[in-house]
Amino acid sequence: MMTRMIAAVAATILMAVPAMLADDVQREFRTFTNSAGKEIQAVLVDKNDTEVKLLLKGRAVPSRVPIADLSEADQEYVKNWNRGIAIFLDKCRALTVRELLELRGYESIPFYLENNSIHVKGELNGKPAKFLIDTGAGTTVLHLASAEAAGCKIGPMDQKIYGIAGEAPAAWTEIPTLTLGLSVVRDQRFLSSDLMKDLPKGAKRRQDAIFGADLLHLLDAVISYKERRIFLRPDLSDDTEIEEVDIHAEDDGASLTFRIFKLRDKSTLRGKVLRKTPTAVTLQLVGGKERTITIDRLVPADAKFVLNWSQAAEEFLQHCRGLSVEELLNLRKYQSFVYERRGNHIFVDGTLNDHQVTYMIDTGADSSVLHDFAAKKYDCEVGPYSEKVYGIGGFAPAAPTMVKKITLGDAVVTNRRLLAVDLARFQADDALGYAGIYGADFMREMEAVITYRESRVFLKPDRAAKRPAE
User: Fold this and answer.
1) 12 pLDDT higher than 60
2) CA angle, 391 then 393 then 398, to 5°
3) Kindly report the CA angle at 341 between 337 and 342, in degrees rounded to 5?
4) Contact by Cβ (8 Å): 440, 362
5) Model confidence over 47-61: pLDDT tens digits?
6) Are 438 and 362 in contact (CB under 8 A)?
7) Would you state the pLDDT for residue 252?
8) Among the listed ranges 145-149, 173-177, 311-315, 350-354, which one has the minimum average pLDDT value?
9) How far apart are CA 220 and CA 235, in angstroms?
10) pLDDT surpasses 90 at 397
11) What is the predicted pLDDT for the residue at 59?
12) What stretches of 122-280 show up as alpha helix (H) in DSSP?
């Protein structure tokens, strides 16, 4: 029984310590109780159908315990225990979000912030271009002058696009190539419009195109505010220059176990580190082939990755690669929300002054904005329409508004001054379907991560600043 086992464990070595437990690392100890009420502090190391291996606090050697000897609550815990998660907590918790995603085969692209909006550098038909990453844009939109400068074929201005300030004329435009990192979208049609129309005098052009939710969804994008990076899957685009990748193969998730390595000669490899020396690295490529290259052939960022390659990364690839992005971020104390897709827009449920509402997630909005109808309905202090907000369609009148509390799960912001705008300009006030735009200001504050593959938004609730009432 478990009581006798506890008495004997100090004197008896039942098995060798696994390599993964040899290091002195922080572990998640739990109080286990047997059917007689005896308690011990231990870490669950492994399990099979009939017994578990427990490492007692202060001991170096795990011990075997029959599952039937544990309390019902502990048996339920054992049933749901995931070895990959346990190894991650024990060996891989020092890996950054960037490292975790790169190890899963995503390309990491740095972005820069203008105000709170995300911008990245790419190419439009082979010409350098700046893209605004905008989850609130259902489709990608080009700036008319930039499309003309890139030599794209522009049709008649007989279409319309809609934004926070109204509508603007647009034209279907043929795009030979749109490139972001290693991802290439070929022979597509997007709308072009004058994105500078009716902006304040002296305003500078911030982007050549709005990189919208259609492409973010296509490329399984992950956006991380803390890392200031967007992560994409080039193998899901129309073209790829990555060696040893069959872009037409069925996506079973296996490609997510290989990292993209860029070489100084502009070629790329997708693989994982098998071994290294001070001057060379051996990669296992997709398909099983091995290739050894000198580290100095890699671009600086990838050379640094190889030089810093650690046992933690190896442990992750061996034992934790089956973990989802959701599981990895939850283990980093993020709170996750499943979002609802309406077209290409994404929405999450929350509260406004303790009333249940829905918000649209919009990285292209520098600041969060409320629908004025919802602000008035849900007890916000709405002032006069003395300010303006700018966007597609020009500008719209806005009212300074004091909000006592906004929540998404455990993430709470209090006593904030936002702007309230008529977001339902083309429909009835109560038909909009959401209370406001949860913008880049709040997401930056709470180190948001947005994942398109898993349809989730992640926030760090403890980052939300609670302000006193004015």
Assistant:
1) no
2) 60
3) 140
4) yes
5) 888 998 888 877 878
6) yes
7) 44
8) 311-315
9) 10
10) yes
11) 80
12) 144-149, 213-218
Structure tokens at 223: 């956006």
pLDDT for residue 266? 87
Instruction: Classify residue 470 as exposed, middle or buried by CB count within 10 Å of its CB (0-12, 13-18, 19+).
Output: exposed
Element (H, E) at 375: helix 372-377
Within 362-410, strands assigned E span: 369-371, 381-382, 387-391, 394-408
% of the chain beyond a pLDDT of 90? 42
Helices within 154-221 (DSSP H only)? 213-218
**For residue 90, what is the DSSP state?**
I
- Cα distance between residue 69 and residue 226, in whole Å: 45
d(CA 341, CA 379): 28
Least confident among 64-78, 159-173, 422-436: 422-436
Is the pLDDT at 366 greater than 50, yes or no? Answer: yes
Q: Is residue 348 a contact partner of residue 358, using CB atoms and an 8 Å limit?
A: yes
> Which residue(s) pair with 345 in the sheet?
342
The amino acid that residue 245 corresponds to is V
Cα separation values, 170 from 23, 132, 151, 155, Å: 61, 18, 17, 9
User: Where would I find the beta strands (DSSP E) of 206-286?
Assistant: 209-211, 222-224, 229-232, 242-243, 259-262, 268-276, 280-285
Residue that is written with structure tokens 């929405």 in the block: 347
pTM: 0.72
Name which of 457, 466, 469 is nearest 216 in CA terms.
457
Check if the beta carbon of residue 255 is closer than 8 Å to that of residue 105.
yes
Task: Give the tokens for residue 311.
Answer: 């046992």
pLDDT at 11: 28
Query: Over the stretch 137-156, which tens digit does the pLDDT of each residue have?
Result: 889 999 999 999 999 999 99
198 vs 153, higher pLDDT? 153
Neighbours of 180 (CB within 10 A): 24
8 Å CB contact between 352 and 436: yes
Cβ–Cβ < 8 Å for 439, 314: no
CA 6, CA 29: separation in Å to the nearest integer? 16
Q: Distance between the two ends of the chain, CA-based, in angstroms?
A: 62
| Residue 188, H or E segment | strand 183-193
Torsions phi, psi for 189 (to 5 deg): -115, 125
CA separation for the pair 442, 405 (Å, rounded): 13
Residue 306 gets the label, from left (phi > 0), alpha (psi -120 to 50) or beta, of alpha
Q: Which of 8-17, 300-309, 420-429 has the lowest mean pLDDT?
A: 8-17
